[in-house]
Amino acid sequence: MKIVISLLLLILTFTQAYSQSPDSSHLALQVVKALASSKMEGRESGTNGNTYAREYIINQLTLLNFEVQTDTFQFKIDKQSIQGINISAEVKGKKFPEKYLVLTAHYDHLGIREGDIYYGADDNASGVAAVIVIAKAIKDLSLSHSIRIVLLDAEEKGLKGAFHFVENASIPLNNILLNINLDMISQSSTNELFACGVYHYPWLRGIADETADDFTNFTLKFGHDFPGTGSEDWTQQSDHFPFHEQGIPFIYFGVEDHPYYHDPEDTFDKIPQDFFIEVVNFLTAFVIDVDRKIE
User: Fold this and answer.
1) Tell me, what's the pLDDT at 10?
2) CA 119/CA 37 separation, integer angstroms
3) Residue 128 sits in a domain of what CATH number?
């Protein structure tokens, strides 16, 4: 009888984590709306708008009772020195606390160009919002592995924040089991989300497929990771690449390019909210699933 009750409690715990509460759905939309507001001025690295975005993200994580850390780095673009700042927090695992999953999303975007604000709602306020909601969901779960949550700067400047993190990681690289990278997850006219990376790490496909079976309002597709396909290969196109370059497995979730990609029209009102919330719900479930199943 005790075994049955324990099993039911375990199932209930994971069901509650999978199912976005109204509060979590509201949080996801709230974060995207705030980060894609005019106040953030497109969040370009080294600008006031980027600073406002960083302060907002830190505040959100602090409200969730995370101990937040920042990591400052310098880089040059056209001989101009720019300061980037990564943001991180951590949930400690219970069974293998020294082994890590690293959950990433970049918070910078393109800023203001020729007087136009590039709001970056999908790219990548959506990924940051998902990370914050996932952080909320896993905060008090009994995880097997530790999860390092990292909001990266300067992705749009050549993945500078991700390279800095990998090259200066406080975690031994061989203790990082997986990078889960979220970049552009909210905008799809066909309700399709792609998982990139399973060509390189085929074992991830089964976990993602099994998680996706519980969600019917979007389609999970695989691809955009085949060598020799030029721009159709996303392996080097977002913050997972520095991890992959070091032999760390990755899975990257994102939508295909759309009419608002790198355009001032990438605004909050363009986001199909039901699709976005379903994707965030799925990604929360996937993080929990992969923590249970990865070795």
Assistant:
1) 41
2) 7
3) 3.40.630.10
